[in-house]
UniProtKB/TrEMBL annotation:
InterPro entries: cNMP-bd_dom, cNMP-bd_dom_sf, HTH_CRP, RmlC-like_jellyroll, WH-like_DNA-bd_sf, WH_DNA-bd_sf
PROSITE patterns: HTH_CRP_2 (PS51063)
Start and end residues of each HTH crp-type domain: 130-205
SUPFAM superfamilies: cAMP-binding domain-like, Winged helix' DNA-binding domain
GO BP field: regulation of DNA-templated transcription
Keywords carried by this UniProt record: DNA-binding, Kinase, Transcription, Transcription regulation, Transferase
UniProt entry tagged with the keyword Cytoplasm: no
Name assigned to this protein: cAMP-binding domain of CRP or a regulatory subunit of cAMP-dependent protein kinases
Biological source species: Rhizobium hainanense
GO MF terms, alphabetically ordered: DNA binding; kinase activity
Length: 223
């Protein structure tokens, strides 16, 4: 399954390309320049620091996704590159009223904001209503649906995943030790394997049924 917008479509919009190295901040809530960034390649994360000093991952940003610096500032989040990330940068016409944009660009931005909201609703339900295995399985199914999978890894569907167990734990509210145990349980149950940066779905239909995963919530149809 392809990303939300084709890379060709994003490039055709005429923005300025910029690359952020792994580990660097793409934007944070202190940034006062309203911009829209469309991801051409790479993985990033949106996170918040809680009062007790722990980090909570609110979203993983993938190829084809949009980052709004205005929304990041409003949410008081930091967007950081997990891998090297290349983006196409545009002025945020929604926050800079003197800048005009074509009608189709408005449609693209609105559609991306709607998708973002739908993912956030699913994320809240996942964290609040599912157990540890279900939370973790659901997140990895979501990432597979959004980034796309292949079938060349031991005849199983798989995708390359640069996340650490700590990243996954911060996204579902579990410790690294707990995530390690959950991943082991899923592997032993023949559901999923996560080794050497590869997530392989050993029995994707059974896992999706177990965690009540609805792939239509992550529809990647082109605008």
């Amino acid at each position: 399954m392809a990303a939300q917008l084709s890379i060709e479509h994003i490039r055709s919009l005429g923005g300025v390309a910029r690359t952020f190295v792994a580990g660097s901040a793409i934007c944070d809530y202190d940034n006062d320049t309203p911009r829209l960034l469309f991801v051409l390649d790479g993985w990033a994360s949106c996170s918040k620091m809680l009062p007790n000093g722990t980090r909570f991952m609110t979203e993983f940003v993938l190829r084809g996704d949009m980052i709004s610096t205005s929304l990041t500032a409003l949410s008081r989040e930091t967007v950081r590159a997990i891998t090297n990330v290349t983006v196409m940068v545009f002025p945020d016409f929604t926050s800079l009223p003197k800048i005009e944009a074509p009608t189709f660009f408005y449609r693209i931005v609105i559609a991306e904001l709607v998708r973002h909201q739908a993912r956030m609703s699913e994320r809240l339900a996942n964290i609040g209503r599912r157990d540890a295995l279900e939370k973790t399985g659901y997140l990895l199914l979501e990432l597979g649906a959004r980034i796309g999978t292949s079938r060349d890894y031991a005849n199983a569907e798989y995708f390359d995943c640069p996340l650490t167990q700590a990243d996954i734990g911060d996204a579902v509210g579990l410790s690294t030790v707990h995530i390690n145990r959950v991943l082991r349980d899923m592997r032993e149950a023949g559901l999923l394997s996560f080794r050497n940066g590869i997530v392989a779905f050993l029995d994707r239909p059974r896992l999706a049924d177990l965690v009540d995963f609805d792939e239509s919530c992550f529809d990647t149809t082109m605008v």
